[in-house]
């Protein structure tokens, strides 16, 4: 079970967070989230407890408990990662777009008429390559 712990004192380290939760059962990991730029705590963290009953007991006991004058906010995380692999919360493959529902009208500058093969006003081809305009004689 993964537990969210908010309102952590900024000086609290992950080993201290782990010690707080070990009073209620086995803790597999404890993490205090650190700001990348300032290298300081963001004031929240996560604790993983393998036994759900011990986790619920820890939540009930620690929610609202004051540490350094700040009441903790302890809840079960709403988002659960798949065990064994890290996830960013996004699906692995994006959902396919429905066919026929979207058009390229916003790219068509011909006023609703079918676009010609060339979009250049001079009738030249649409090429992304750079043409050599300077030739040696």
Automatic annotation (TrEMBL):
Where is this chain compositionally biased, Basic and acidic residues type?
78-93, 102-111
Any single Pfam family the record assigns to this protein: RRM_1
What keywords appear on the UniProt entry?
Answer: RNA-binding
* InterPro entries attached to this UniProt entry: Euk_RNA-bind_prot, Nucleotide-bd_a/b_plait_sf, RBD_domain_sf, RRM_dom
SUPFAM superfamilies assigned: RNA-binding domain, RBD (SSF54928)
Which GO molecular-function terms appear in the entry?
mRNA binding
Domain (RRM) ranges: 1-79
Kindly give the SMART domains that the UniProt entry links to this protein: RRM
- Protein's UniProt keywords contain RNA-binding: yes
Q: What PANTHER family has UniProt attached to this entry? A: OS02G0815200 PROTEIN, RRM DOMAIN-CONTAINING PROTEIN
Which protein, by its recorded name, is this? Answer: RRM domain-containing protein
Look up and give the organism this protein is from.
Persicitalea jodogahamensis
């Amino acid at each position: 079970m993964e537990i969210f712990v908010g309102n952590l004192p900024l000086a609290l380290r992950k080993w201290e967070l782990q010690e707080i939760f070990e009073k209620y059962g086995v803790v597999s990991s404890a993490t205090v989230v650190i700001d990348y730029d300032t290298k300081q705590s963001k004031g929240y963290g996560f604790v993983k407890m393998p036994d759900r009953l011990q986790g619920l007991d820890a939540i009930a006991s620690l929610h609202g408990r004051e540490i350094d004058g700040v009441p903790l906010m302890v809840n079960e995380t709403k988002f659960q990662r798949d065990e064994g692999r890290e996830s960013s919360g996004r699906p692995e493959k994006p959902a396919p777009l429905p066919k026929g529902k979207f058009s390229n009208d916003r790219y068509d500058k011909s006023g609703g008429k079918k676009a010609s093969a060339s979009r250049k006003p001079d009738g030249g081809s649409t090429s992304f390559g750079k043409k050599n305009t300077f030739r040696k004689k």
